[in-house]
Amino acid sequence: MKAILFVGHGSRLPAGNDEVRNFIQQMTPSIPEEYIVETCFLEFEKPNIPTGIKNAVERGATEIYAIPIILLQAGHSKIHIPHEIDEAKVDYPNVKFTYGRPIGIHEEVIEILLSRLQQTGFAIEEEHKDTAVLLIGRGGSDADANSDFYKISRLLYERLNVATVEPAFMGVAAPLVDEGMERCSRLGAKKVIMLPYFLFTGILMERMAKMKERYEVDYPELTIELAEYFGYHDKLKNVLHDRINEAVAGEVKMNCDTCQYRINAMDFIDHHHHHDDDDHHHGHSHSHSHDHSHDHDHSHSHDHSHDHDHSHDHDHACDGHDHSHAHCHSEAKN
């Protein structure tokens, strides 16, 4: 039997985890009945990834397609989730694993952002010379993720007639949201729409609401609005269906399960990701030699220099890894 294993990030805020579960429940009827559907979390919530895999296997799965519900490719999707899959390949040698890719740059993501702007009363077709959109992401130390976020902000700008679309981050990476708001003000905006680039609610969304209140005091000359995060948007379901179909068809692009660097990178990081649930603490040390011979031809050639310090509002015990690795992805991102 085949299984779809959705991997959510996990949040310290229970409501965020509930939203992930509810979203998957809404998606499940549109997934063919022959597929087992399981949901697990990278951290902060049960079940963790090993338990999610175990649940799928116990339900009879012999092929598991792991689909990360993660916005951009960074340390979690490049290293931590593939590492859990590597361990599972040893624990379940008769099970075939395929790792799908994160949401990434997708035309439906731009459509979601446009619809969230419209919900604030913003007319997409009209000119808004005095309006700035402040696109707000989580932020991290992965250059690929940060640059993809900038690309998304530009793609959004191309669809609008506004003074500017300013990308900003909640933490780790510059510019921070405070800097982005100041820039919007200095550019002459009279109205700023804070547009979250977040899937579900969580601690950072709560923090963003408080930031809006502070900005309204600090910038009395500005009209400031806070749009909704992605949430249960139908177009988000479309993106995940695309990622499932890619995995099932063996057409996954930009997938770090095939990147040799991350196996070496695991030597430099402590992957104890708060997986303190389900009695699986990753306190064991496997000396496996994984021969990743996949059926897709990855002749990649972009240079990633990652230093995953993950200080973004979680207590990752993986500070200061300096992953200098060259791998090569010749496939184009969509």
From TrEMBL:
InterPro entries in alphabetical order:
CbiX-like, Sirohydro_Cobaltochel/CbiX
ATP-binding in keyword set: no
Write out the entry's keywords from A to Z. Lyase, Metal-binding
Task: Name the source's superkingdom.
Answer: Bacteria
Where composition is biased (Basic and acidic residues), the residues are 288-334
| Keyword Metal-binding in record | yes
Which residue windows are coiled coil?
A: none
Which Gene Ontology molecular function entries are recorded, alphabetically?
A: lyase activity; metal ion binding
Q: Which Pfam families match?
A: CbiX
Where do the segments described as Disordered lie? 275-334
The name under which this protein is listed is Sirohydrochlorin cobaltochelatase
Species source reads: Metalysinibacillus saudimassiliensis
